[in-house]
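Throughout our pipeline, every protein is held as a single compact record rather than as scattered files. The remainder of this section carries one protein's record, kept here as part of the documentation.

===
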Amino acid sequence: MTRPATIGVVMHDFPLGGTERIALRLARAWLALGIRVTIFCGDEGGPLRSMVPDGATLVTATPPISRGTGSRERLGRAAARHFATHPVDTLFVTGNFHWQVVPALAAIPRRGAIVVQISSPLALPQRGRILQWRFRQRMRRLLRGADRLVAMDETGRARADAMLGRAIARTIPLPALDDDAPPPIRATGRTILAAGRLIRQKGFDLLIEAFARLDDASARLVIVGMGPEDASLQRLATRRGLDARISFAGFVPDLRPSLDTARLFVLPSRFEGYGAVIVEALGAGRPVIASDSTPAVGDMLTSPERGLIVPVGDIDALTAALRTLLDRPAPDPARLAASVAGYRIGTGARAYLDLFADAMAARR
């Protein structure tokens, strides 16, 4: 099968998100393999704009499209107009958030193959039967024109095929680790690290409460990220008397230096996509405490050495898990990193190219 010579990537903008971060890393890897990459965005805003790789063609909608009601449909129409006159071999749609662009892309005459990423679980207990049925109907409508789907695991692949009624999905492990990452170093100290957008979904308020109950004067908590809850989380830390022991580090372009200075990583989310940051933490040789908020938790934290799983929203369980991992000897970082060696960008980039070739062959 012939791999693509040109790839178009559709992104609304450049927010702090694991899906967008990985898409930009993949684009960089494809460019290094000699493939021409065009990134079409609605707006160039967002802290990850700096990650757009040198050599990629960045095209912004005219006029720019900010996030809002109907913005993803407008983004799809704008991207379709561009790629109708600047065709590419494969169009890559990055994650569930962008599914609304697919119908417009599918309507391009003589278009390339469309490959769509599944970045969040397709079935959630909190949806209930009716909402889950509506989700399935919406998914089938939006993805009717897709040629292939990318699932992060076999469970997601099987569920996607069942929901769409056709064998369309393929599994590619989440490519969250850079190929040139330095070898991990052994953890020291008692610093707890968490990272993500500062929004309610991520559960940082729960982590601050659990940290307060830990009652360990030698422990420190570092929260990396930015978002609308920044001020309220800092006020919570102040109310709990933790100003001297909690640091809000803001946005950092690379999480690895923060992981190197941490003893462990925590993902306290109320709900989550795949949770790429779990892979990043293990790749840096750090055990993880995670709420049971994503299938990635069960995929990744398969032994006590790798970390602990706590129920969503259970502050007492989170406190107990923090105490356990802080008091336990730090695990062998090389062994943790080896457990996620298959999640490197280079491996994933080549797997995506093979999938793109398969989608192109199916269209022919």
Observations:
- The CA atoms of residues 120 and 273 lie 4 Å apart.
